[in-house]
Each structure stands twice: as C-alpha cells, then as structure tokens.
TrEMBL record, chains A, B:
Keywords: Aminoacyl-tRNA synthetase, ATP-binding, Ligase, Nucleotide-binding, Protein biosynthesis. PROSITE patterns: AA_TRNA_LIGASE_II (PS50862). Residues 173-501 form the Aminoacyl-transfer RNA synthetases class-II family profile domain. Gene3D superfamilies: Bira Bifunctional Protein, Domain 2, Nucleic acid-binding proteins. It is an enzyme of class 6 (ligase). This is asparagine--tRNA ligase.
C-alpha cells in the first residue's frame, strides 16, 4: 500500500507535465487559452470594454479600405460576433494571423476587447482583438458551403457539414430546447425517465414493419437465441414500469422498416412515451397538453432568436402559432363529432371543401382530415377522442357501446396545424378478461389448449403483459409523441429529414 | 368553413360527454377521483390533518385485534404509507373494500385524513381512510413476489415484475436522477443534446463486434442500400456537430455483439458522449469530473432515502464514497506514472500485491490494475492520462514522443473503485495530414491511387470525417461514459444486468 505522500508526489509530477515539451509543441492555441473561451452568446451579452476570448467559424469577410470585418459564429446562438481587423496585411500579421487565411469556413480564435460598433442604430458590440489565430484554414475552391445560399436538398447531400449553416444550427438548438422542455415537464410532474430497450423479441405490432437483427455471421444462429427486432414503441415496457412505479416516460429512438419516402416519415426517429398508473383519458389529455406547452415554452424562452429566424425565412406564422399554443387550452372533440364536422364541411362547403377520402364513421382519419380539423376548423391544436374500436390497437380500453351501439375506445390523438397527428394515446385495457380475450383472438398469446410448457417457451410471448393485469392491475393510460414532428411543428420546417441530425430512410443511411 | 361559434358548441358537447354512460360504467374509480391523487412522497411530506387520495400497491398487511395495517407504495419514493383499517370485515366493507381482497401485490386507492401514528419515537403519518377501493386483486398463491425476500437471480427471471420490489424501485429512481443530473450539467454548460443515429453504415470500430440489420425478408437486398449496423458509439457524429456548433453531447443506446457473459457487459447499454470544440485534455478532464460530480450530487439530493437503502443493504461504503466524490477533486496520474506505481506496489508489496498480468509500459491496463489504482492507491476516482499510442484508437491526438522516445496520445480514462473504467476520452487528432496517414494505414479510407469516383462510392467511407479537418479544423476533445457503470457506481449494485430495465446479453432478449 502506498500512502498519501506518494499520491501527492505523483499528482505534483502530473501537474508539471502540463508544461512538458509535448504540450508546448501543440500547433494550435494552448489549452490554457482555450479554457478562457467565452461563448459568442455570452460575449454578446457583455458590456463594452469587456475582455473576451472567442473561437468560431468565419461566416463572412468584408474588406474595406482601412479595416476588415470578420463575422464569426460558434453555434452557441444564431448571431455572429464581428471581429474588426486592420486591412493592412502587416498589421494583421502582428496580431497573429494572415488575412488571406481568414476565409469563409476557416476557424479562428481571437482575444481582445469588446467595443460598441460606432454609428449603428441598435447597440451592437464588436471585438477589437489583440491576438487572432487561424486554427484551421478552409480552401475557398473546394469548400462545399462557399456560396451564400444553399438549397435544403443540396445540404441533404452534405449532411456532415450542414450543421454549420444558420438553418441547421437553429434546428439543432430548437430541437435541444424542445427535448429539455419535455424532460423538465416530466421531471416536475413525478415521472421517472425509463430507458426502454431498443432490441426486443416481441414483434406484436406486425413483424413486417420491424427491422430484424441479422443472425451471427456465417452461422444460422441468433445472438439472443430468439429472433430479435428493433423496437417500434416503448409503450409495453412503459406499462411494465408504470404498473410498479406509477409514472414513467421513455424518450428514445424507434424504428419502422416501412418503404415510406415522404416528408413525414423516417426509418429511425425519436419518440416520447409517458405512461401513468391511476390515470384515465383526462390525465392522458391534460399531460399531453402540458408536455407540449412546456416544451414549446422552453424553446420560445431559450431560442427566441432562432424562432424569429424561422419566422422570417420558413414560416411567417410560426412565432404567432407557438405563442398561441403555450397560452391557450387545446380544443377537444370526440371522433364522432369530428366526423360530423367533416361531413358538414363538405356538405356546406359548396365545393370549396373536398376530401380524397369521404369522411364516414368507422374510417381512420387521414392526414387531409386531421389537417382540416386543426387548420381550418380549430386553427390550433385539437384533441380527438373516442375512436372506433376496430381501427385502433388491441390495448386500448373499450368504452361501453354508444347510443347507436357502436364500439369505441378511450383513445385520443392530438392534431396540430401543418403536421396532422402529433400525439396518439389511450387508456390501456386494464381488465384481465377483456384483454386476454382480445389478445387470444389476435393470436398475440397462444391458444388456451396448449400445455403450460409450450406457452412458456413461445417466442415473443406476451403473457408477461397479461401478468400486469393478473396481479394488482391498475387503470393506466399513456401516449406517444413523434419528437421530429414536434420539431417540425416548432420550427416551421417542411421536411422531417431536415429536423434530425442524420436522417435514415429507404435507400439512405449515410455516415 | 365553420366559425368560432361552431367550435364552442362542439367543445361544450365534448365537455358534456365526460358525464356520458360510457364513463360512468368504468368499473374502477372514476378519473375525477384519480386526478386528485397525491403521490405517497408528497403525502408523507404533509401535515397531520391533511386530506389526501393515494393509489398504490400493497407491500404488507398486518392484522391486529382491532385494526389492520396496510402498507402501500406507489414508486414515488422508497417509503410506504400505512393505511389503518378496521379489523372487522363489515366496518372495512363500509369503506368500500373487502379485507380479504387486500393482499400483498393488490392495488388500492384510498382517500382520507393523515394522522400522526401514536406512540412512535419518530413523527410518522398514517392514513385513516373514508374510502378504500381495491383496483386490482392479486392471487396470493400464484403471485411470484409473495415471499418477503427474493434473490436478485430470481428477480432476473421475473423481469416484468421486479420494478415492484424495493431494490428495483430504488435503482430506477437513482438511474433517473443520475440521467437528469447529467442533462442539467451539460445544459448548464452550453452543450446541445444531439440525437446521434443508431443505424449506421460505418463499421469503423470493427464489424465483428457490431450487430447488423438483416436484409429485407425474402430478398438479397439491404433496406438502406448498404450494409447497416447498430452504432457502437456516437462519437464520430458528435465530432461532426462539435465541429459546427462547439459543444454537443449524445445520450443514447449503443450496442456490442460481443459474447461477453460478465457482470460488467451488456449487448445494449446507454452511453453519454460529450464532444467539445476549442478544447484540449484539460477541458476533457474537467468536464468529466464536473459531469460525474453533478450527476451524483443530483442523486444524493433527490434520492437520499434510496442511497441510504443501498448503503444498508448492498454496500456499506456507498454513501460515504458518493459524498467524497462530490466534494473532492479527482486524483490524476499519467499512464507512465500509473505503471510505475503498479510495478512499485508489486515490488514493495512483499507478496501481498500481485496481478495476473504483470504491469509493463505499453500494455493496456487491465481491470485488476484499474481497481488497484482507484481502490488501493487513491481510494477514489482517478484520471489516468497519456496512454501509449499503440493501444488506443486511431482518432486520439498524438503527443510528441516522451523523453524515452515512446509515443503516447492525449487520452484519458477515469477509473473508479469497484468498477474500473467509468469514462474514456481524448483529444481528437485535428491535424489533417496526421489523421489521413493513420486512417489510410488502417484501411479506414481507400488507397490514394483509387480514382475519385470509386472513393466517393465506397461503403462506410469515412472521408466525411476527414472533411471536418479539411475545412476549418479545430482542436477538439470528448469522452464517453458507460451510463450503467455510473449506476453501478452510485448504487453499489454488483451486476450490470440489475441496473438497466430490460438487460440484453448473449442468449437473452426477454420481453
């Protein structure tokens, strides 16, 4: 055993090693300077006369007779910081940089004093540096992002660089804020974050849509002993934990092996799925409204500049729409009312309202119907509840038949303008007998006359799901939100491939 | 088009529908009562005389002559709330429940008044209910969790019910707290949460360890057009975004198709991987310490009762160890010093210190060495930096050769007692020429003499990774933390399969 003194000696050796030749030979600015770095967001918030060190990428260079203005961004905010440099090569070199190396896309590190830009109407700070260093040059000929404007299509072909543009920087910040807003809503409301598994042996939602893990290379053997899939939803696992700890939520990637090449679908996307015990449709609806409002409010608070950017460049109504979302209760309709509204709209619309698919009780609502309800009828988010049992999943809790003897379930969808369905949820069938009958009918659990051993060894058997109702069952409810759809909704962007860092869809899994 | 008035009418119809027969026929307590539910954690914090409604699962029933004590837990905390019921069947039934239905594992909903338990030394509240309802019965004969004590092995066979035990409730709460502590550290320090992809076409870390997605059913075709794998790390994608937006972190599932049946490995586990531009080893080390301290501090603050439970039942040193972690700086050694310390320990240990693998410069540290350093030498977390270049990944930044002309990289591992490696990180090689040479040598990018078209179409090509250095390269650094290892460290649990909701390992992917 070596005592404390040994440790101290070792530690002091360690500290000295920072001054070793290895460190000094780093070509770039030393870590001692890097650690003094201020984000550009924080620098912009400081007063004239403050001394700061900033690092970032050059967005534009404007050369005038006596000065050069170099605009730099570091991703901490949409805005840039203007660095004022002497126009003369020798004077610039005295600061540490060759002017010809400071080009769009190059990275710089500058230290100096913030001063007010003279003559401007708005108070704005610029940096007068004592030192400027070019950390990484950027060849103007070969850099793909040279041009001022790039189409979103072009940027989808340059996925690894698109985060350097204003649009994708803003998307990343808003996406981050929306995610944190969701976390803080759930944490503030007694939900525990549950990391539900990605790999699963249960293929209950239809194996055709699920990605499957390949067998072990060169063998006809499964790594896990059973066929294994990528999850399509964490709901069932959420129920497992809600039926023990009351309130949980998942926030993780989910997968669909569907051949959908649309602006609304991805093969890999993120879902948020809360599940609550001791809850009914009322809690389901109110928590969905609360979570969406809290999330959007957090984005409005922390990304005002980004939202203003989207409002100016992508969707002139986005700022107003988001303000309404956070301040007003969402509208609510039953499915039966929604169908009536749609039929009436066609009948009274005098040809101005028409749908590809005629609205009729019993059908699933199509995006055209959902958007009509959210955009034309409500002009804002609207919950539709109590859907026909036949078009909804087996786990949704059956209502008693309605006055016309039609069967509905205690489910809800949240529809929003531009997107259609943002959230789908329901009360879960907690009655053992009702659920068992339905699952047996659908072949989700084996036939009753099998012996127990066969049942226990059946792959993907959902008997455990029935156990949650067999032992201390509780009324419970939950919902799922497609996170990328929320990002679309909050940014006004049109294509889901533009609101996730690396989009995966049929035919593309780049990088 | 239908106007505002139409909407109001529809909404009022909707509101009325809550009182419809469908709702009233729910067998269990109505949602109106459920929404008045207080968590048991909050109920325990209230004063005597407060009226509350609580729901939960029965943990124990003690029948006395005149009263029955029913202890109930709802997962909001480790502690239980005692409900005091009359011992007489008729009196209990007048409150709404059959005493014989209130068994361990059944779920109940009770409303009444909190009163101080008479005669106790510690002030403690119990619930005197006006109504009690059994929501879900639980057959004492068939319920697997009947017995008082269950081994962790037994509970691993009953994964879907184990969250109902004290241990797994506590693990879930601490895991939640540690995750939120990490999020809040990163959010407070200007990191953006990045959802790096799970599906990836790059197999650069060695395809042998990666799960591969099966081809489309019945066809010899890849869904994405290229062989697709499950990610082993989000680091490269983290670098993509850090080289645009400065500071990002991933927090998501990662996968290893290794046949490791140990208490430290899973096939699916969660990793936290921050990546920082304008950063060196110093920032790497200080952010790792900051994140771990912040995370553990959040768990200590919000899960004191759970930590005390682990301290009592699983590891008598855990509370003290965690307190030290959050209050003291972590120790630091270079790899070269660590080897010297290990060699000296063997030499001076007089047979009391021995290792299976003899410590020698150039070898990778084994868990036995890591634990010796963290447990015996430091007795706490310790960073080891500057490893030999040959044993570390291609992307780590090369130091200048040391005094003995040995090559090292600016990498670091954080070693902690009981676990060994908790964090691994490094400065990334930002020099284009150095990195290109190394990647070509390793076959990660095609040979130079290929034509450009062939290079561009190569599957899993990492040329994009070089682009980050080609255009505005910046010094950057990052690290990865195995989240389950942090949960092990913070709970004192021994087996990694017990700190993730649904463990996946060779041969098992249950539920």
């Amino acid at each position: 055993m070596i005592g404390r003194r040994g440790l101290s000696a070792a530690q002091s050796t360690w500290r000295n090693c920072w001054a070793s030749p290895a460190r000094q030979q780093q070509r770039t600015v030393s870590t001692k300077i890097l650690s003094r770095r201020t984000t550009i967001r924080d620098a912009r918030g400081q007063g004239s006369g403050a001394r700061v060190a900033v690092g970032g990428w050059v967005k534009s260079v404007r050369k005038h007779k006596s000065v050069s203005f170099v605009n730099v961004n570091d991703g901490s905010c949409l805005g840039e910081l203007q660095i004022t440099l002497p126009a003369e090569e020798a004077a610039a070199e005295a600061l540490g940089a060759k002017l010809s190396d400071i080009t769009v896309g190059s990275s710089v590190f500058a230290e100096g004093e913030l001063r007010e830009v003279p003559g401007g109407k708005q108070k704005r700070l610029e940096l007068h540096p004592n030192t400027v260093e070019v950390l990484g040059k950027c060849d103007t000929q070969s850099y793909p992002l040279q041009k001022k404007y790039h189409s979103l299509e072009f940027l989808r072909d340059n996925l690894h660089l698109r985060a350097r543009t204003n649009t994708f920087g803003a998307v990343t910040r808003v996406r981050n804020a929306l995610g944190q807003g969701l976390h803080s809503y759930f944490q503030d409301n007694d939900f525990l974050h549950l990391h539900s598994p990605i790999l699963t042996s249960s293929d209950c939602e239809g194996a055709g849509e699920m990605f499957r893990i390949a067998k072990i290379d060169g063998k006809d053997e499964e790594f896990f002993g059973t066929p294994t899939y990528l999850t399509v939803s964490g709901q069932l696992h959420g129920e497992m934990y809600a039926c023990a700890l009351s309130k949980v939520y998942t926030f993780g990637p989910t997968f669909r092996a569907e051949n959908s090449n649309t602006t609304r679908h991805l093969a890999e996307f993120w879902m948020v799925e809360p599940e609550m015990a001791f809850a009914g449709l009322e809690e389901c609806v109110s928590s969905a409204q609360g979570a969406v409002q809290h999330s959007v409010a957090h984005a409005l608070e922390t990304c005002a500049e980004d939202i203003a950017f989207f409002n100016k460049n992508y969707d002139k109504q986005i700022a107003e729409r988001l303000e309404t979302v956070v301040t007003k209760d969402f509208a609510r309709l039953t499915y039966t009312e929604a169908i009536e509204i749609l039929r009436k709209a066609v009948a009274e619309g005098k040809g101005k309202v028409s749908f590809e698919k005629k609205p009729e009780w019993g059908m699933d609502l199509q995006t055209e119907h959902e958007r009509f309800l959210a955009e034309k009828y409500v002009n804002g988010p609207v919950f539709v509840t109590d859907y026909p049992a036949d078009i909804k999943a087996f786990y949704m809790r059956k209502n008693s038949p309605d006055s016309q003897n039609r069967e509905t379930v205690a489910g809800m969808d949240l529809l929003v303008p531009k997107i259609g369905e943002l959230v789908g949820g329901s009360v879960r069938e907690e009655r053992f007998e009702v659920l068992e009958k339905k699952m047996r009918h659908l072949g989700l659990i084996p036939e009753e006359d099998l012996d127990e051993e066969t049942i226990a060894s059946a792959d993907g058997d959902l008997d455990w799901y029935l156990d949650l109702r067999r032992f201390g069952s509780v009324p419970h409810a939950g919902w799922g939100l497609g996170f990328e759809r929320l990002v679309l909704f909050a940014t006004g962007m049109d294509n889901i491939r533009d609101v996730i860092p690396l989009p995966r869809f049929p035919g593309q899994c780049k990088h």
